[in-house]
């Protein structure tokens, strides 16, 4: 079924309001979820709405948290999100990091006691618009096994890097450290479809394309031991040093209702012209050189990270959003509860 963007936004806003969030917080959440749909990241959009609402009902996400901000310096802050929904915690952290970076050159904000916050790239784009280079990290429930282990412990733990390019299209690299992000596996399960080959193992260590067996087993990291190491790095940066859960203790938001997730986030921003004055000229030159490289026969154009996502956003913004029957069923239940 296809539904207009504005109608989707209004519906999601109303659902969050019904679950006790303020109008301001409901808008922050609905903005982020709609953005995920528009850039084609359906695994981080409407398909997760039911999960957020269930965790609010079970009092594992607080609709009106008492968020505390500890100012460490003019550039650094530490936020206790008080089990806030991740969108709200991340929005606040980003605003503080941007403010500090524009004032001092650097903005570093750590967040603890948060929850899943959607797409890291969504926040990076906002910082890049302020001419800030950004690095964002967040940890997640166990999915990847440390190299050589048969048990999952590390999250898919995305790495996000954003750079202004001097154009409307920012350079945004937002990638999980697994062959496929966990949200896509859950979406495959929801839509009763198989996974691509080579992305997961079952709990016995055998390759599987069954999404349920993949969720119960192990997701394969990108680049073998390198991907496992990067996932571990992000767990340290966003979980361990922020005071959040780490080392496999982040709870699965869909299946583990025994307590709050206590996800951690880390936002590190700095001015693009902090060291050199001609930054925009140099980044344009950098991109131009790479785009002019000889191409494979199957390649028409070399894109930098973020270009294709921007094109999808523009294209999808002009048309209605396609919603699967499973997600539509969830929306009807949530709005009628």
Q: What secondary-structure arrangement, pairings included, does this model have?
A:
Blueprint: E1 2-3, H1 5-18, H2 23-38, H3 49-57, E2 68-71, E3 76-80, H4 86-104, E4 106-114, H5 120-128, E5 132-138, E6 159-163, E7 171-175, H6 182-190, E8 200-201, H7 211-216, E9 218-219, H8 225-240, E10 263-271, H9 279-291, H10 307-317, E11 321-322, H11 325-336
Helix pairs in contact: 1-2
Structural description of this entry:
There is one protein chain. This protein is an alpha+beta fold. The protein contains eleven helices and eleven strands. A hairpin with a 7-residue loop joins strand 6 (159-163) and strand 7. Helix 1 (5-18) packs across helix 2. The model has no long low-confidence stretch (mean pLDDT 95).
Which features characterize this protein?
single chain, 337 residues, alpha+beta, Ribosomal Protein S8, Chain: A, domain 1, 7-stranded mixed β-sheet, 11 strands, 40% helix
What's the helix count? 11
Distance between the termini: 21 Å
CATH fold assignment of the largest domain: Ribosomal Protein S8, Chain: A, domain 1
What share of the residues does DSSP label as strand, in percent?
Answer: 15-25%
- What is the overall shape? globular
State the major sheet: 7 strands, mixed
Strand order of the largest sheet: 2-3-4-10-5-6-7
CATH class of the largest domain: Alpha Beta
Low-pLDDT runs: none
**CATH H level, superfamily name of the largest domain:** Malate/L-lactate/L-sulpholactate dehydrogenase, NADPH binding domain
Rg, rounded, reads: 20 Å
Would you tell me the structural class of the helices and strands?
alpha+beta
Rounded average pLDDT: 95
The CATH architecture designation of the largest domain is 2-Layer Sandwich
From N to C, what is the helix and strand string?
Answer: EHHHEEHEHEEEHEHEHEHHEH
Total beta strands:
11
* Percent range of helical residues: 25-40%
Total domains, how many? 2
């Amino acid at each position: 079924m296809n539904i207009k963007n504005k109608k989707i936004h209004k519906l999601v806003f109303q659902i969050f309001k019904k679950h006790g969030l303020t109008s301001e917080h409901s808008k922050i959440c609905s903005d982020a979820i709609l953005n995920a749909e528009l850039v084609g990241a359906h695994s981080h959009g409407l398909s997760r709405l039911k999960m957020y609402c269930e965790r609010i009902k079970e009092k594992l996400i607080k609709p009106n948290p008492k968020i505390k901000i500890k100012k460490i310096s003019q550039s650094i802050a530490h936020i206790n999100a008080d089990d806030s929904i991740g969108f709200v915690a991340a929005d606040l952290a980003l605003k503080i990091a941007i403010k500090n970076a524009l004032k001092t050159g650097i903005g570093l904000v750590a967040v603890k006691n948060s929850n899943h916050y959607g797409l890291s790239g969504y926040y990076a784009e906002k910082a890049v618009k302020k001419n800030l280079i950004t690095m964002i990290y967040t940890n997640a429930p166990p999915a990847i096994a440390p190299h050589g282990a048969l048990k999952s412990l590390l999250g898919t733990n995305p790495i996000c890097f954003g750079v202004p390019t001097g154009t409307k299209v920012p350079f945004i690299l937002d990638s999980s450290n697994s062959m496929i992000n966990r949200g896509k596996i859950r979406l495959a399960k929801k839509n009763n479809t198989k996974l691509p080959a080579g992305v997961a193992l079952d709990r016995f260590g055998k390759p599987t394309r069954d999404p349920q067996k993949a969720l119960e087993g192990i997701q394969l990291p990108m680049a073998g031991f390198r991907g496992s190491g990067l996932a571990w790095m992000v767990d340290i940066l966003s979980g361990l040093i922020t005071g959040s859960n780490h080392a496999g203790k982040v709870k699965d938001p869909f299946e583990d209702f025994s307590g709050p997730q206590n996800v951690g986030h880390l936002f590190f921003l700095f001015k693009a012209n902090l060291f050199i004055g001609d930054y925009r000229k140099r980044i344009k030159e950098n991109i131009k050189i790479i785009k002019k490289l000889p191409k494979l026969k199957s390649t028409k154009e070399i894109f930098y990270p973020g270009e294709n996502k921007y094109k999808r956003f523009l294209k999808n913004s002009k048309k209605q959003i396609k919603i699967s029957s499973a997600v539509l069923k969830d929306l009807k239940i949530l709005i009628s509860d």
